[in-house]
Amino acid sequence: MTTSQSTVPTTHGGRPAQPPLTGRIPAGLVLLLSALTAVGPLTIDLYLAAFPEIATDLGTSAASVQLTMTTTLIGLALGQLVIGSVSDSLGRRRPLIAAFSLYALVSLGIAFTDSIVALAALRGVQGFAAAAGMVMSMAIVRDRFSGPRVAKVIARLMLIVGVAPILAPTLGAQILRFGDWRSMFFVLAGVGAVLLALVTAFLRESLPAQYRRSGGLRPALASYGSLLRDRSFVALALLAGFYMAAMFTYVSTSTFVFQDSFGLTAQQFALIFGAGAIAVTAGSQINGALAGRVSPERILSVVVPVGVVLSLVLVAVAATVGRTVAGVGPLIVALVLVLGTAGFVMPSVPAIALERNAHQAGSAAALLGASQFGVGAAIAPVTGLFGEASALTMAAVMSGTILVAAGLLLYVSRGWSREAATVPEVIHEGGDLADAPIAAVTETA
User: Fold this and answer.
1) What is the mean pLDDT of residues 227-236?
2) What's the predicted TM-score (pTM) here?
């Protein structure tokens, strides 16, 4: 049994959603959306190599510098919640223009700050503004595409987005060769200005007025309320959040582990960080190649258990390598393998969640993003509670979060099994196949 790509999806309330586009996926649109999404990783990762320098320049501790990462993640989480909901009412384009105007101005302000408190606060605002690019890209994908095409487009976004974590620490390390850490935020201000110009000039509105939510704050809260009452959606969002927390633990801790504990240079750290980003990108592209042939539910059911095993291996390696340079190699290999599994998880979760919530894609994308960065913000500083950052502490926290994600997968997969068992009955009773759960349709197609 097959379904037509031109089938118009319906909302849970029966109102027709915006018809998805068919035909070739526009390369220009994918590139622009990828650039908007990449602002988040670039904002997070560009200054990683400068952590030790920031601590010295501002006369503060490593743990305090790590907290600026936490405020950035909190800003990213809150920004997605607010901007995602607003976009369901105002459309996607206007919130993007406002957010990137703010992003450019705040980035300039950070370059002139002289205290760790001001840096932490402004980084939170910067994260809030950067969130627009991430949540709007996902919402625009769901506005314009449906079915397996959503997973394909998200995988293509991840290909370009994967370049940002590879280039960001490397770019940051090069900036440190010719300037100081403040120069990095002048660069981010320029990035914000360029993206503001591109959005203004080239991005068309993807959510027509007739498909927007009306009524102000109350419907927005109701939209979030309905999603939060959906236990499967909440479990999926938390699954992505805890898996992302493993990545953020690595991001916020690895610079101290490799530069302070192992004595590597900023340039050497950038190369190691790039290897992890390549692994994430490779996983996302394999995931995209499987879209349409293997359901994202099936991908998660295989990859997450593999991630559990690899994370336990990482803990074992970290416990045995000590702080010798000879131990860096095995540690890097184990880290890269764990990070590679995240490349499968990150596209699969939104592909499932957005397909099931096409009628409120902005709010769904916002909650997904907020859970990822919110949980990441809560977990990332945990390694600092154990004193000096070490490879073992980093590995243990990463493994713990992946184990939690596996437990959430076990819970949500039970719901998928029940849906798959009921889909023949739905079709037999004459129900519209477009209204059937996507997982069940995939399994019976």
Assistant:
1) 87
2) 0.67
